[in-house]
């Protein structure tokens, strides 16, 4: 078999182009220039968002927050929602209470509250406090009379402690009402709540949620506007704060003072 001779093929040469680096300017030291730039660079500041029309807007590096895009729910809208809910509770028979029209309109229980279980009383209290801020009859009478009855009976304090958050929310709405008689009802129920020792101590932690409405009525300080005076309401507010200070323990006064800076102690030290 004839032997084939290997043919030597030279590899094809590709044309490679080399780009020369741009010449550096003579006498230029990049290290020194970078150090100078970093050293003299203006530090970046963090802008904080603060509430509009507040003292914080005068501070440096602050920006007032804009108005919310969605309108917050007003007190009237919340009251309307409470009205619908409480009306539904009553008309659907979820509350063991009915109205008697014999001699005068009054509320009667369809069952003995003393025989209710703790779970039943907890559920009833949570429904009743929804109606406490209402001013529409007859639901105003139903909620106030029924809750007042439960506070006067020997109910387990643990039940009230479990529902304290709901109770305080309802009492604050009463104090925010434009109806002075509703404010008196809220003050009256709060004072009855302080007669129960565990509840009186537990209320101290809720002062910052409960007491702010009193700034507009009594202890807001002079800001160029004098609210209309109401002697009976002022007396009731003073009596309420004195009772809270006396029954709330050693930390009651400082918590009242935090919410109402112009308040002065009314108890003997």
Structure description:
By secondary structure, this protein is mainly α. The protein has twelve helices and four strands, in the order αββαββαααααααααα. The strands form two sheets. It has a two-stranded parallel ribbon with strand order 1-2. A two-stranded antiparallel sheet has the order 3-4. Strand 3 (97-100) and strand 4 form a beta hairpin. Helix 2 (75-91) crosses helix 3. The radius of gyration is 36 Å and the shape is elongated. Residues 221-227 have low confidence and may be disordered.
Radius of gyration: 36 Å
Overall 3D shape: elongated
Order of helices and strands: HEEHEEHHHHHHHHHH
Largest sheet strand order? 1-2
Number of helices: 12
Which range best describes the helical content: under 10%, 10-25%, 25-40%, 40-55%, 55-70% or over 70%? 40-55%
Give a quick account of the main beta sheet: strands, pairing sense, barrel closure: 2 strands, parallel
SSE class: mainly alpha
Percentage beta strand: 5-15%
Alpha carbon gap, first and last residue = 128 Å
Unreliable spans: 221-227
Region (Disordered): 43-79
InterPro entries: Parkin_co-regulated_protein
Pfam family, one: ParcG
GO molecular function, one term: Hsp70 protein binding
